[in-house]
Amino acid sequence: MSEQTFTFEQVAISLDDRSYDIHIGQGLLSRAETWAHLPKAQTAVIVTNETIAPLYEATLRRAIATHFKQIETVVLPDGEAHKDWQTLQLIFDALLSKGCDRKTVLLALGGGVIGDMTGFAAASYMRGVPFVQVPTTLLSQVDSSVGGKTAINHPLGKNMIGAFYQPVRVVCDLNTLATLPPRELSAGLAEVIKYGPIADMAFLQWIEAHIDDLMRQDPQALAHAVKRSCEIKAEVVGQDEREAGLRAILNFGHTFGHAIEAGLGFGVWLHGEAVGCGMVMAAELSCRLGRVDAAFVARLRALIERAGLPVRGPVIDASDNAGHYLAHMRLDKKAIAGDIQFVVIDGPGKATVCGAPDALVRAVIDDCCA
């Protein structure tokens, strides 16, 4: 295929010697050109799951065949419930049994769970091998594949065991979104929506105007949503790679959301569902702290509901629901000396991290849960 017809959007992540590009376009997965100029290696290992492998593994294998002499595939069980040590070990078992060296390139073909686990494996195997993110869900294309956060879950907390480790490239083939179930699409929209309140109100207004287009998977709307989301995340990560300050705002809704996921059991609610509901709770907390007005909370709640996401939290334990939320939130990575830190909206289009009295947080949880 000629250079002229091979077109895609590109967003740069600027991190000195760890810089890389995000490629965004249609049909990127099947093109050999997509995979040119990766680190030189004899072996590539595709890490995917039982759902994605039948859809895209053969296509990716054919596309990278001109660049690698040996191609192996590791197929993992699907779902957040398998984002653990036992499943991670399957990747290491494959790498060692195939004699993979420290030049081996891993390719994470799948959603956020696959991306996080492959990245963590790449960070750990022989103290670091290169990896490529090939996200196939909206949530992973706009958020989890970008920025180098890799991790597995612990029964007591989400993403508590991991490392910061950047990929060498991110390839977002928009065509893979066509196979997303509606529930997964909605989950991805949660991570798209979050960028508006924390960084770009014009983007929030655009999402409100195009939410129906996004829900029916209009290609142009999805392309813009993915690119703008990646641009915002790239700007934030470029300033704060290891979440020492600014990057924490990307966790808007996640403190409440992670408590929902851990409290219910990983996989009961999708990550994006928990984040969508968590954003409503975080916006309500922002309002009660005097940072935004009730109209803003209602506006955000309405958009999240239009995206097909839950806007009321689950009851984790009827005897002391708020207490169970707080217990899980004290394990949040932003917590300082046991004090929970929340990402709150500090006026539309701006976010900050702050603490809040337990009594106030309890009141928010009680009022926002079913």
Key phrases:
370 residues; alpha/beta; Rossmann fold; Dehydroquinate synthase-like, alpha domain; seven-stranded mixed β-sheet; two-stranded antiparallel ribbon; 17% strand
| Helicity, as a percent range | 40-55%
How many discrete structural domains? Answer: 2
State the name of the first-level CATH class of the largest domain. Answer: Mainly Alpha
Q: Rg to the nearest angstrom?
A: 20 Å
| Overall mean pLDDT | 95
Characterize the overall form: globular
Number of helices: 13
For the sheet with most strands, the description reads: 7 strands, mixed
- CATH third-level topology of the largest domain: Dehydroquinate synthase-like, alpha domain
Low-confidence stretches: none
Strand line-up of the largest beta sheet: 1-2-9-6-5-3-4
CATH homologous superfamily caption of the largest domain: Dehydroquinate synthase-like - alpha domain
Sequence of secondary-structure elements: EEEHEHEHEHEEEHHHHHHHHEEH
CATH architecture of the largest domain: Up-down Bundle
Q: In a nutshell, what does this entry contain?
A:
This protein has 370 residues and is α/β, with parallel strands linked by helices.
Give a structural overview.
This protein is an alpha/beta fold and 370 residues long. It has 2 domains: 9-179, Rossmann fold (3-Layer(aba) Sandwich); 182-368, Dehydroquinate synthase-like - alpha domain (Dehydroquinate synthase-like, alpha domain). 43% of the residues lie in helices and 17% in strands. It has helices spanning 53-64, 85-97, 112-124, 138-144, 182-193, 195-199, 201-215, 219-239, 254-264, 271-288, 294-306, 321-329, 358-368, and strands at 9-13, 20-25, 43-49, 70-76, 105-110, 131-135, 149-154, 157-164, 169-173, 342-345, 351-354. Strands 1-2-9-6-5-3-4 form a 7-stranded mixed sheet, with helices on both faces. A two-stranded antiparallel ribbon has the order 7-8. Strands 10-11 form a two-stranded antiparallel ribbon. Strand 10 and strand 11 form a beta hairpin. Helix 7 packs antiparallel against helix 8 (219-239), helix 10 packs antiparallel against helix 11 and helix 10 crosses helix 13 (358-368). The mean pLDDT is 95.
